[in-house]
Batch of 3 targets.
Target 1
Amino acid sequence: MLRIVMHSVAILVLCCNLLSNVSSGLLLTSCCAREAWTIETFAGTGVQGFQGDGGPALKAMLDNPFGVIRGPDGAIWFCEYTGQRIRRIDANGVITTIAGSGKKGFSGDGGPAIEATFNLPHEIRFDKAGDLFVVDMMNHVVRKIEMKTGVIQTVAGTGQSGYSGDGDLATKAQLKQPHSIQFGPEGDLWICDIGNHVIRRVHIPTGVISTFAGTGSPGATPDGSAIAGTPLKGPRSMDFDRHGNLWLATREGNQLFRFDMKNQKISHLAGTGGKGFSSKNGPAKQLTLNGPKGVAVDKEDNAWLVDSESSTIWRYHAGNGMLERMAGTGEKGDGPDGDPLHCRLARPHGIFVDTDGSVFIGDSESHRIRVLRRTDASSERYRVQLVAGGEREQVNIPADQARLREPFGTSFGSDGSLWIVEMASGNRLLKIDSSGNLQHMAGQSKAGFSGDNGAGLSAQFNGPHNIAMHPQGSILIADTWNGRVRQYDPIRNLVSSLAGYEVSLESAKKSGPYCVTVSFDGKEVYVADLLRVFAIDLKTHTIRYIAGNGEKGVPKDDAMAIDSPLVDPRAAAADRLGNVYILERNGHSLRVVDPSGKIRTVVNAAGRKGNSGDGGLALAATMNGPKHLAIDPQNRVVIADAENHLVRRYDPTSGLIERIAGTGEKGASGIGKSPLECQLARPHGVTFHPTTGELYITDSYNDRILRLVPDKRITP
């Protein structure tokens, strides 16, 4: 996510000011709700053309994308108006062309859709059987692509412009520049026959077409009028709500209507009928629209409206009749991504509301697919605070003044104390006590392997990478280049090696323990050693292998994890649902082993090194040398993407990834600012406070520990 945006305060003030001047019967409902939204590019470079099939959609060239929809296969599908193609973006973010040769024409019926020609396709929809329907506007037809065979055929229209055929087969009827289609609750095909100013309906079982609404001539559509016999003025786009009612945007009428299917009445909802751009939110009937060309109804019965000629996206709130601008400035342009109200759009046409509430937009003349997403409003209220790391070469002083030497891992004791382990530059185990002072507890600056069964300060470590808290209170240390998991007992001030696991010193750098994390039930410690991931039972000290067969390679999705190769598992942690997440440093990927033991990749399916994809599908994202991970209270995975100098978060529920800390540029500025404005330098550790849930970041090459704190808790 490039930027978390809070435009809710402005909306709140504006809406409430408006409401003070209208009927007291209006409620302060969703328009005045406190919300945060971002807008991101989902596909397209902004350059018009045809390029990129087989690669990331974000690097592909698009050609005037119009209609956009999520298919039954989970992919995002869209049509290109001047590109004369139908294209698909899969869960990995890879784009392919499904239909259309790219030439303008009307050919291909009865053959492969990929070889067919179109003439300005406007919109696409899937029927209940999973087949794809295309409005081929200037061919004056609706066409169907059978997904099993890939064959295309015409299902409505003759190819000649006109208005005829009601009561007969739809293939014998004439249409005039149809623009939008939709499938009703009963499965019938509905067509916005805009050139004839009517809505037509094709009864799927019989293939018979009829006129549902409109008279064939343009005219005003009075509020409360009967559906039958009332004229329409440029019926452009439609959708059905969960109650089976039809919503319609009229292009020349510049209005939004809802058709009450039970009572057969038309309600006027938005737009004065005049043409113009209302820059402010307000009562929907009092605002002007400018050529609305797309409408989609969300699960709360609010309508999302594409006002194409003003290059804006609006939301009609069903609860209070207010119209709220959600994206676009009113000026035609291209971005930037981030704050939707500052992102210029360019004559958008298509719109689709996903099941999670995300809104996909065919930003036509920007040659991009964009997506609006609701964000966690609390993110903007966090600031970065320095916990440890200063200039004084001392201990037993305030931690934020004391010098750290390459801190990597952190963990919390049951008393709330923060423990820190330093890698090769320090080789020390440190503690920040309840008074905030830094104490040196174990290890020496000189690397080595000594001190088992002795006092903490007499022991030596060699490149320890991480630590975890044993449920009985000792600190487990991934003493990487010594090939051991060491333990420090703070009560007895005693260092020892965990029984049941040992790697020879000769092999330790290639397969020593790089990460240790303790399961939420406290029974096992998970170890990642660049070859395998396994769990050590903390009671019996027996080893249970989880993933990796000892060979280097990329595992295949849905293969058994213990039989699969791994690139170099650097960190592993289990969530509360029985999944084990594995982070691969040179594989630049996050993988998960489900409770059945099968492995699959969830971040960066391509395994490419890079820094891309925030705000989009995690499978399509790239990372660069990620080093550690932690599971948050919502079972999301927070990743220290070290070589990108970022902290990112993967949400397994939505499949999305976002940036939550760091700018992407190596640096040290930003203490006291929001997490997204704070520079990091190769962060290696992420840990959550067990009580407050606050995120702690080991900013390793800045030799400091940071935490993200709510504004109200920032201390002087």
Note: Confidence is low (pLDDT under 50) at residues 1-34.
Target 2
Amino acid sequence: MSQESPVLAEPDEITDMPETSEPFEIEDFLAAEQQKDLLRFTTAGSVDDGKSTLIGRLLYDSRSVYEDQVKAVTRSHAGEADAIDFAQLTDGLRAEREQGITIDVAYRFFATTKRKFIIADTPGHEQYTRNMVTGASTAELAIVLVDARKGILTQSRRHAFISSLLGIRHVVAAINKMDLVDFSEEVFAQHQRDLLSLAEKLEIPELLCIPISALNGDNVVTRSERTPWYLGPTLLEHLESVPIAEYLQHAPFRLPVQRVIRPHQNFRGFAGQIASGIIKVGDAIVALPSGQTSRVQSIQTFDGALESAFAPQSITLTLEDEIDISRGDLISHQANTPVSTANFEASLVWLHAEPFTAEKTYLLKHASQTVKARLNVTHRLDIETIEQESAQSLSLNEIGKAIVKTSRPLMVDAYRDNRITGSFILIDPANNATVGAGMVRHAEALEPAETRSEQKTGALLLLPQENIIPTLEAAFLASGEDVVVTRIQKPEVWRTLLRAGFIVMVPADASTQTEIVTLNAGGEFAKQTLLEADHETIQQKVTQLKKEAEQNDREF
């Protein structure tokens, strides 16, 4: 079926501006903008389903692009009207423009009179699934595009599953290219039945199907006269009206402590971003994992004190009692606490070219804590059938289920209940690369006596004699230590590895002497130089320093 190039008229002149003689006040405008809420949404789907074209059309019709941007992507054809290549408004990388595909996640901002939006335009190719996970991880709504001519394809099914896996509660199935099927109600109805069946299987709580033509603008911003049988909202109408963040405020209160603020002896506050729930002055709270209790004395923010605060505000709490809380701890209401666990089941998306290795110890970053973790993969997901198959490994972009065991207890919720305390990332300690993203599905609660385990501090060795590293590594592994050999010279990476309890060996300049670095009680580096550098002397000194540090240090 042939299709003529659309003739795109310029947007109508703005006629809804009120006529008034009163001066325009920028303060009033900024205040009105501040009152608008923000919706983060992502687009997903198979290759050539029209994701970038849809976003370009959405930006253009909502007047959120500059004139020079439009001119840059406008093509002239002999004997035909100029046509805008909407996809190029979002395909920002040169490789994307050359290949006509989306590779990286492109973030775009626009606003209407009702709401502000951040769009994550994610790739459709299978090899860029990890980029799709990145873009969707903070989204509150997902638009999954489906080509009206082809129906649900494997990658569309994959992205719908990932949207479900990432806890996105609102999903829009945009049946695109309806102009190429003559805006057939029967075709739309069949795709709608298939999509609703898939949503039920994936346990997606809300899925809305909208027939659109991204190229021509049908049902994107304005209602199309060519779909009189469709009585639902346009895409923009739905984006402006869908409820957002309501689950965050109704969920139990969680505040991962990011920093302890003590400017003077009369003030001690615990700062962080509220992950979920509402907190009020006078509320009874518990600090975890210690289990110490108190009440909220005040809630401080950059703009002053508040009587109450809610997710996702950043606040500083002061308490009525002097209790021991530090970075990595979690504050919650006494009546509804998370599970304290060192053993849980999780869904895992593998993000690295190097496959998962069960024998390897990874760093697991959860909220404001970083701990050592070992994982055993039990199943891999078959995207074609959405069924699980037995497996022990995962490769790049594969999704599976794993049993996770951590070196210290974590305070977790199921991901479906809380995306912050129910999620984590895996880091390869040797190169600091993020290799996996996980979502907690089920956790085994520890007994009260087990909830606070002894902190194990690590030690970092700066070794000018590289030939001694294999012997030292074998000796430490034989004694049950977790060892990392790396050339990374970043102090913040060293500190993370030491707090997690690793023995870290770093090749140093041959002109220097061997140094052993540990963390003192304040989290600062403490160095000792060794004159003798044989492996037995080094191992004995490391063992001695670790014991001393563990006696003086506390859990970070």
Note: The mean pLDDT is 81.
Target 3
Amino acid sequence: MIGLSSPGTPPKDFRPHAQWAALVVAACFLVIAGRLYQLQILRGDEYKGRADENFVKELRVPADRGLMVDRNGRILVDERPSYDVILTPWFCGKQCGEVLARLGAMISLTPEEAQRAEERLLSARGLTRFRPFTVKVDIGRDELDVVEAHPGDLPGVDVIPAPHRNYRYGTSAAHLFGYMNEIGAEELERINNELPDEDQPYQPGDYIGRRGLERRFEKELRGVDGRRRLAVDARGSAKGEELERELIPEAQRFVPSSPGGNLVLSLDWRLQEFAEKTFPGTAGVVLAMDARTGFLLALVSRPAPDPNKLSGRITRQELAAIHSDPLQPELFRAIQQHYFPGSTFKVVTAVAALEEGLFRPGGTIYCPGHFSLGRYRWRCDKESGHGTVDLEHALGASCDVFFYSLGEKLGADRIARWGGGLGLGRPTGFDVGGEVPGVLPDAAWHDRHIPGGYQRGMAVNIAIGQGDVRVTPMQQLVLYAALATGTVWRPQAVLRLEDERGQVLREFAPDARGKLPMKPETREAVLEGLAAAVNQPYGTAYSQRLKDLGVEMVGKTGTAQVVRLGARRLKAHQVSYFERDHAWFAAFAPRQDPEIVVVVLNEHSGFGASNAAPTASALVRKWLELKAQDAAEQRGTAGPRQPPPAPAVPPAPPPGPPPRKEVPRGA
């Protein structure tokens, strides 16, 4: 038979086969030993961590975001107590779909929230199954009670205290503060890749600052989250403190969170509330600045959405209403929208004419009520004419013909050059994002943007703040602060950054971008005209003077047309809202030692003298009263400070068509 040796044949030597078998066994042992070395030595910590997760659950302790307070310490933005619902996929196992369905019925998940939770469950692989993610933020008290009443039905579900942003005064200064919302998946990966190694990474469901100071100071405000480690069973239910003490070292059970830094703003909220209450505009801007430092004292940009809504629970319908509002409430008008400056721009034309030697102090120009150049005619605001006027009278009474004449002599290039030296045509540097530069057109700009290129008549329009010149309200503030003090300031709204104990982490000093590029006699001639506008009977803002306070306020009214003038003058109530003129007033006080600069823009309201100047005058008066009150309190001669009035609620926007594009006043 095969395999049997013939009789008398010596048996075969099996030693080579035994040697091969030994080698195979040795190789197997080496493979096993290598695998054990890999599991226990090289990746021991990783697998130990996985094993630990079977009985230890780690929850985040969200950090308190830093406060925003005004210069007097009044809290403007803080945190309110709230609760977030989180889910850890490992602890619901194969029941996750059912758990999510039950949870959705209890806390009324929106379709978007439910879909996002399902996607995160499906994407949970490996160690990510042990990481909780946020299902819903900021649940109501009733929903909290329902979830806590059914712990056995919701394995893997936890409710954690999570402070949420609270903007105490609603829409007031909302554009400055900004708002927060949830970080997106792609954004999450990008931001975490950009973070330094020592910074705590963001996690799905985290909120991040959007716009305004919330975005600009995100890193400083954010804080560092803490950790809470619990002993749990396979369903994620706590096993009790006694077992917890046995399984988890005391130092690892709880790591407290560290709050973010606090922003101390330069705003005086008493003045802010007064500005909100006093400003009558449906849309527009009110700005007040410390003339000696460039720090803002008040900022109104109306209309504005409620940041509490944008940072929390907002429906699709509410968000759609904000986006479709023709008044564009999301637009930060102070820096993100530019306008015809109207007659407030005449100071630039006056400076250019004086500095270029085309007009001398004491000179006069005759105003017959119109100005002609070639076959075109421009009319003056006073149709009968002002007669023979000098610069003081021309600025005080706002004579258009006077500045038409200067504009025609100067040309667009020289006006643009001097306007640029006063801070126009470029961002002011107000660092909260989205600032537009405005438009300060020279001849080359017209050649690039206007069919047919630059024409002499274009400078005539520019000279009175019409044509194609555009400025932001913040640029106007910088311009008039420069006239007041001789310094071109970079406007700021944050005085310092402090920790939770009040220790200063960073202080922001006044930031001068340059000195006023003009001769002292030029500035004085312009100031005489601005003083006349408020303090002389022929001045356009004479009714707003502060005679009873013994303080000389100076300023300039402006009425900026947004549509071409017709053959007949119409009053504001005779045209639709979006065809009405913008009302401007820019002022500072006291004249000899300026302390405060104010700019008011009342959109589509009519004349600057009647619809912007009263707000500015009242604001200057209020500031002087507050200063006197504070000084008296410091001396101990005043009674206790009265509580401030409630913030004004901006009026509802009027019905009407969407805003039409502004049409330059043509030659």
Note: The chain has 25 helices and 25 strands.
